[in-house]
Amino acid sequence: MKQLERSGTNGVFNGEIAKAVDRSAEKAARKAEKERLKSIMNGPTEEKGSGISPSEDAPAEEEKHIQDGDGVEARDKVAAKAARKAEKKRLKPLKDSTRQEENRISKTNQGTKEREHKDLSKSHDVEAVDEAAVKAQWKAEKKRVRALQNSKEHGNPESAKTLPDVSDQSLPTPNTTLNPQSDYTEDLSLTTLPQAKIDSFLSDHFITITDPSTPTTLRPITSFSYLPQSTDTSPFANFRSPTPIQSAAWPFLLSGRDVIGVAETGSGKTLAFGVPCIRALANLPQPQKSHGPVARAVMVSPTRELAVQIHDQIAALAAPTGLKTVCVYGGVPKPPQIVAARTAHIIIATPGRLNDLISEGSADLSGVTYLVLDEADRMLDKGFEDEIRKIISCCPSTGMGRQTAMFTATWPPSVRDLAATFMRDPVHISIGDNHGGELRANTRIEQRVEVVDPRGKEQRLLQIIKQHQSGKNSDDRILVFCLYKKEATRVEGFLRSKGLRVAGIHGDMSQENRSRSLESFKSGACPLLVATDVAARGLDIPSVKLVVNCTFPLTVEDYVHRIGRYVSFPPSPLSASQNPY
To answer: Smallest Cα–Cα separation from 421: which of 467, 390, 455?
Structure first.
C-alpha cells in the first residue's frame, strides 16, 4: 500500500510540473487517492515491515507533495513573468529607434513637399511675370497703332504711313523665336503684312519650306528693314532686297534652328548663313568670347577659292562687332594660319588643311556653336566625307548647343545621309521649282552643242570669243573650262599668243597666282579666264556673259555647275542670255 501511495503522489507531482497530464485523468486520480486515504483513516492497520502508522504519516506526506507542486508552478510563473519583462525591456530601445526613424522620414517627406510647392509657386510667379510683361508690351503697341490711326483720321498722313491700317482685333501676334536660347522676334511690320502677300512672295520665287518639328510660322524676311535692329545692314547698301534663300533662311537661323538650304550657285548663300552667325556670336557674353577655346564658328568649303571668297564677306560683316576671322587652306605656309587660328572667333577652311591643324593640336573646335558646310554635295563628290565627319566629331554635339547649317546646289542621297547623322530636326528650304533637289541644268540658260574636229577646236574657240567680244562688248567676261591642267595651260598660252587678255586657274598653279588670276578676272582687268573644274563650284564671279566648255567634263554634275557660273549676286535676268557651248 505504501508503494501505491507513493505512486499516486508521484503522479500528482509529475502532473503539476509538466502541465501535460489531462485534467480529467488528474481529477480521477485524486478522487481515488482520497477514497483510499479515507478507508485507511477509518480502519487503521499496520503495513507489514514498515513500522510506520499510515493514519498519522500519509496525510502529512501527501500535503507536502501538493505544496511542493504548487511552489514549482509559482516559480514557473515568476520566471515567465521575469522573462516577459526582460523581453519588453530589450524591445523598448528597438521600438524607440523605429519611431525616431519614422519621424525623420516623415519630416524629410514634408520638407521635400514644401520645397516642391515652393519651386512650383516660384515657376508660376516667373511665368506670370513674363506673361504680364508680354501683355503690357503688346498693349503699348496697340496704343501706338491706335494713335497712328487717329492721326491718319485727323489729316496727318505722314505719321500714318509707318503702319498699315489695321484694327486692334485684327492685329496679329508677332512670331517669337522657336529656340529659347535665341532672342529673335519677328518684326512687327513683317507680322502685319497680309498673308496673301507672303504667299505670293513664296510662290513667285519658288520657295518651299519644310519644317519636320512644328508647323511653319516664321515669315520670310522680304526686306532688309525686317532684320533685327542690332543687325548691321551696311553691307546690303548696294542691294534692293534679300535673295530668296536669304529671305527664307534668315528667320530660322536667327531662331537657332538647323537649316538645309538647297539653292543654285551664286544665289547669295554666304550672307544667308553669315548674317545669323555674326549676330549669334556678337550676342555671346564677353567672358565666353575671350576665355577657353576662342573659335565659336567653323565654315567649311570644298576649294581654296571659295574659302577665300567666303572669308572676305564674313570678315566685312564681323569687323564692326570686333570678331576675328581666319581663312585656312592648303598651298600656303601653315605658321601664319596657326597663329591666326588661335585668336580667331570664326574659322573658314577647306577640309584637308583644317584637319591638319586639328591633328597637330593647332585648332581647337571644342567651343564651336555654329557649324556651316557650304557646297556639301561638292565636298562629298571630291571624297571629303571622312574629313567632314572628323571635323564634326571635334565640335560639340547638337545636344550641347551646336547649330548647324548645310547649303548645297543639289540634294542627292549621299548628302541626305550625311545630314541625317549630325543635324537635329533641320528645316529644309528649297529655292526653285526643283523641290526634290535632283540634279538638272538651269532652265534659264540657253545651251548649244557643237561637234568639231579636235585639231580645229582651238581655232573654233578663238572665233567664238572674238564673236562675243567685238565692239562695245570687248570687255565682256568669258569663262573657258578645260578638263585637264595641261590642256588649260595650252589653251591659255594659245589665246595669249593671239593678243587676248587672259588669265588661268588650275591645280598646278601656286595659291598666290591662282588668287591673282581670279581677282583680275573679277575686276575685269582680264575679261577671259581659262580654268579647270576648280572654278566650277561656289565662286561668286559677277557678270559672266559666256561659258565655253572647251572639253566636256567627266560627269554631268560638273557640267551643270560649269554652265551655272553666269549667276551673280543678286541674280540679274539679263544673265539668262548666256550661251555655254
So the answer is: 390
Between the CA atoms of 507, 512, 514 and 520, what dihedral angle is there, to the nearest 10 degrees?
-170
> Could you tell me the domains of the chain?
2-130 (no CATH), 194-431 (3.40.50.300), 454-577 (3.40.50.300)
| DSSP, residue by residue, 117-144 | HHHHHHHHHHHHHHHHHHHHHHHHHHHH
Residue with cell 481529477: 27
Longest distance between any two alpha carbons in the chain, whole Å: 175
Q: Which DSSP category does 264 fall into?
A: -
Residue with cell 585639231: 455
Measure the CA angle with vertex 498, ends 495 and 503; round to 5°: 35
Is residue 373 within 8 A of residue 298, CB to CB? The reply is: no
What is the three-class DSSP state of 364?
Answer: coil
Q: How far is CA 429 from CA 190, 260, 413, in A?
A: 20, 6, 16
Run means of pLDDT, 10 residues per run, the chain, 581 residues:
46 50 67 70 47 46 52 69 79 74 68 58 50 57 58 45 39 45 79 92 91 80 86 76 93 93 82 92 65 82 89 92 92 91 93 93 91 87 86 84 87 84 90 66 78 88 89 85 90 92 87 85 88 70 82 80 56 34 44
